[in-house]
C-alpha cells in the first residue's frame, strides 16, 4: 500500500511541477537555448534553428501518421490507388525532413515515453476507483468538466499543450545541438 501511495504522490508531484507550472516550461526552453549558445553557437542562429526544428518535428509526426495509416490500409487491402501513390511522397518527405536522422535513431522515442496512465498500477487503481465511485458518479457532468479544466487534468487542452511542449522542447534542443555539431564535423 505504501508503494502505491508513493508512486501516486511522485506522479502527481512530477505532473504538478513539470507540466502545470508554465515557468518550468519557459525555463526549460531558455536552458535548452542557452546550452547551444554556451557551446559557442550564435544565439540568433540557434533560435532560428530551434524554430525550424519545431516546425520540422510537427510536420514529421503528422506525415508519419498519414504514412502509417496508408501502410495499414494497404496491408488490410482497403487503400485506394491515390493513397498508394502518395505513399512514396510521404516517405520522401520524411527522408528529407531535417529531424529525420534523429528520429531514425530513436531520439524522439527516448524522450517521449508513451506510458498509459492505466498501466501504472497505483494510478490505474485510483483511476478505476474514481470512475467506479458511486458518490463521484452523482456529480453533474458540468461540475466534473469545470473541475478538470480548473485542475488541468489529463485530456484537457492546456494539459495536452504543456505535455507536448515539454516533450518537443527537449527534442528540439537535442536536434539543434546535433545539427550544430554536424556542421563542425569534417
Could you characterize what this model shows?
Helix 2 packs parallel to helix 10 and helix 3 packs antiparallel against helix 4. This protein is 80% helix and 0% strand. It has helices at residues 2-19, 22-38, 43-76, 81-96, 100-104, 107-111, 121-132, 134-137, 141-150, 157-184. It has 186 residues and is mainly α.
The H/E string reads: HHHHHHHHHH
The number of strands is 0
So what's the oligomer here?
single chain
**Cα-to-Cα separation, first versus last residue:** 57 Å
**What helical percentage do the residues reach?**
over 70%
Mean pLDDT: 81
Layout of secondary structure:
Blueprint: H1 2-19, H2 22-38, H3 43-76, H4 81-96, H5 100-104, H6 107-111, H7 121-132, H8 134-137, H9 141-150, H10 157-184
Helix pairs in contact: 2-3, 2-10, 3-4, 3-10
Structure, briefly:
The protein has 186 residues and is mostly helical. It has helices at 2-19, 22-38, 43-76, 81-96, 100-104, 107-111, 121-132, 134-137, 141-150, 157-184. α2 (22-38) packs across α3 and α2 runs parallel beside α10.
Structural key phrases:
mainly alpha, 0% strand, 186 residues, 10 helices
